[in-house]
């Protein structure tokens, strides 16, 4: 299975727009322009790829709303890069107030596969306008939206502003997501706090786990787990996924320009 396909499946658990019947409390925005961090994707000791995530150093006006632009670049490395070269860029214009996505971009280069995609979210008409460009074709399509949604990038950043201190371990939430041309509904369980080890030292973290439906890829309903630092930053620290063919991990590799100090021990 392609590494990037695996990352997409894992990332879908981070796409979240909580339904009206399951509201959550939010904390003040805990990131700002010029924040950066890097992630390492690995199978055991073998590094498969890396990603850089950054909030660009400007604000943008989209749909008459002031937005951050968050950009993620990912690439395969080492033997994985020789087997199939991956160079992907994902961007999201995130509302500085509501944290929803107003516009999304993907530029995907994976071996011979090529895709340029732009999604415009028109919440006044509840439509997602999707423009795709492949090597030999272009398309323009519209899809219905149930309301405000997130893309992969804005969903991950939305998880960072949830007030987990107001939750109890075991609390579950219904999640609605738009990706490509579909609406996804999943459930996320808050697992509480625990101290985890990282390459920077130990730190207390919030643990989250999506409830996975029965499938042929992941092993068990609790097969994916992710951790965010249990401080004001809510910085992504680790993702683990148990698959029938083995386990994959995503770990924090570096960080800079955080809004608040972070303390590893």
Descriptive overview:
The protein is mostly beta strands and 265 residues long. It has helices spanning 3-12, 78-83, 152-159, and strands at residues 36-43, 46-62, 65-76, 86-95, 101-110, 113-122, 127-133, 138-144, 172-179, 182-198, 201-211, 224-229, 236-243, 246-256. It starts with a helix and ends in a 9-residue tail after the last strand.
CATH architecture label: Beta Barrel
The total number of structural domains is 1
Task: State the name of the first-level CATH class.
Answer: Mainly Beta
What is the helix tally? 3
Question: Separation of termini?
Answer: 37 Å
So what's the overall shape?
globular
Key attributes of the depicted protein:
mainly beta, 265 residues, YmcC-like fold, disordered N terminus
Entry summary:
The chain is mostly beta strands. The protein has three helices and 14 strands. The protein has a single domain (3-256), classed as YmcC-like fold.
């Amino acid at each position: 299975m392609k590494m990037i396909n695996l990352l997409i499946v894992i990332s879908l658990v981070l796409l979240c727009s909580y339904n009206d019947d399951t509201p959550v409390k939010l904390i003040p925005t805990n990131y700002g322009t010029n924040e950066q961090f890097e992630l390492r994707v690995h199978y055991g000791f073998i590094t498969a790829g890396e990603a850089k995530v950054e909030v660009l150093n400007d604000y943008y006006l989209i749909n008459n709303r002031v937005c951050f632009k968050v950009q993620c670049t990912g690439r395969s490395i080492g033997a994985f890069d020789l087997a199939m070269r991956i160079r992907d860029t994902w961007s999201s214009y995130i509302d500085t107030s509501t944290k929803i996505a107003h516009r999304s971009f993907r530029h995907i280069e994976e071996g011979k596969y090529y895709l340029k995609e732009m999604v415009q979210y028109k919440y006044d008409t509840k439509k997602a306008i999707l423009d795709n460009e492949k090597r030999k074709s272009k398309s323009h399509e519209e899809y219905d939206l149930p309301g405000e949604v997130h893309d992969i990038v804005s969903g991950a950043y939305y998880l960072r502003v949830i007030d987990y201190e107001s939750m109890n371990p075991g609390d579950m939430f219904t999640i609605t997501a738009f990706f490509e041309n579909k609406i996804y509904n999943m459930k996320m369980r808050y697992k509480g706090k625990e101290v985890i080890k990282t390459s920077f030292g130990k730190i207390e973290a919030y643990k989250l786990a999506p409830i996975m439906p029965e499938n042929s890829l992941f092993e068990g309903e609790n097969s994916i787990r992710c951790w965010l630092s249990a401080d004001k930053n809510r910085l992504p620290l680790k993702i683990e996924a148990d698959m029938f063919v083995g386990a994959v991990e995503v770990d924090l590799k570096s960080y800079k320009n955080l809004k608040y100090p972070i303390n590893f021990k």
